[in-house]
Design goal:
about 30% helix; 14 helices; globular; alpha/beta; single chain; Rossmann fold; about 500 residues; binds zinc ion
Length: about 500
Amino acid sequence: MTGVEAAHLPAIDGASDESVRCAVDTRKIVVCVEDDLDPVAASAAATLVSVLARTFPHIEVRGDVAIGANPWGVSMLSELLDVIERARPTAAVEAEHEYVIAIGDSIGAADLWVGGGDWTVLVGKGPQPVATCRTALGLHAGAALAAAEAVKTALAPLGMLVVPMADQLVWNLIDYHLTPAPPAAAVPERLAIDLVLFGAGSVGSSTAGVLACTPGLCGTAVVVDPDTFDATRNPPRYPASTGNESGSKAAWVAELLAGAGLSAEHRAERVGDWVRRQEHPGVEATVVSSVDTLDGRLQVADAVARTTLTLGVGGMALHLQRSHHDDELACPFCEYVSAVPTLTQTAARAAAVGLTVERAGQLELNHGLLTEVDVQAAVAAGRLDPARASDLVGRRLEDLLRRAYAEASVPLAGGGEARVGAPYVSLMAGALAAAELLKTAMSIPLIDRRVDLDLTGVPLGVVSRPPRDLTGRCTCSSGLRRRWAARLYR
Ligand SMILES: [Zn+2]
């Protein structure tokens, strides 16, 4: 496929619901930046523009600042919209309302302000100060929350079920409580991380995108993902993308990390294949996993890394969880044990995509790739838009499922639902993963153990400690494996 006709997509799938598309398309988002933002904070401002511009076709940036390191290769904020043009939707209608988001407390009038700094997130309906930044992680997370507010404001009148933000939200990425970040050591000049990234999709690439805005990184990265870039589907949902990418996703994400200063390599293969090729058992580097298939998650658990950070995204909800292999808390696979497909589940998946149970089972068990016949069956069943179906040939059943379920679904007043691309959910997941990785570089304790967010609402300021699966069905239940894993990292 060429990227040219892929360039201009509606941000809303399920275009049958014109009211939703109209609510987004008639809203013009104005991003105002104060002119003395430092370059690291300015890169977070660019991230805000990047996520908003993938959802809202009408966007204007007021003010211009020099941007530090960033994944799009721009030096001034004013260059960004042109550079990511192929990742952006086109408007079907004229803008009728403005929604103004300001970065910095010197801007006097706006609907929403984003502030904060390295670890603190400030979003509010009054001016919020921006600290001088070294990592700007708090601003990146704030950008994701501000984009979520813009979407909520556009869609709530249609009946989207949301929890609106109060006048001010204060949150932090050190302990994830609803307070400013507790005092942490100053961020050092050099931030050494060793990273294995399993999954280079919207979340993995967003993790790399946030890291690419952080000066002073050094260390190593390996990016593992067998998929290739889908020029139609991916750019609107990948905040770090320009829309001009092609080929291996792992190669692209490794390039972003190399640009950030890491010694990065990529492996276009499945996690299990990469694990099998390692000379020694275990993984010393911090694993960040965003793989989205059941067998992929099992392969991640099988890597038995010293520390695994698992990211999961579903609709507008996401979570980040840290796991190890020799304690009584959940491993990367525990929560999915009950989701291992049974015949009934295969039947449900088959029905969802319009395939026969036999064919869906065959694809699932053999990791088969979709044929023209499969895709036509899905079209005939009304599960796929015929105009956008052919690019699924040669992809996986999961891709077809995701296309059929699409992105965030918005329940509408009067029944039915519409779907909205939500790149800010991936951005938030990426900001959380980047925060945990930088904690490893600064010897700050990592998350204890899991944070869940739903971006139709606001952060709740709590973390949880999910216990290990005790049904005996998880791979971590083996006593032999547990003793062996404990010895591996002694
Ligand atoms: Zn487990």
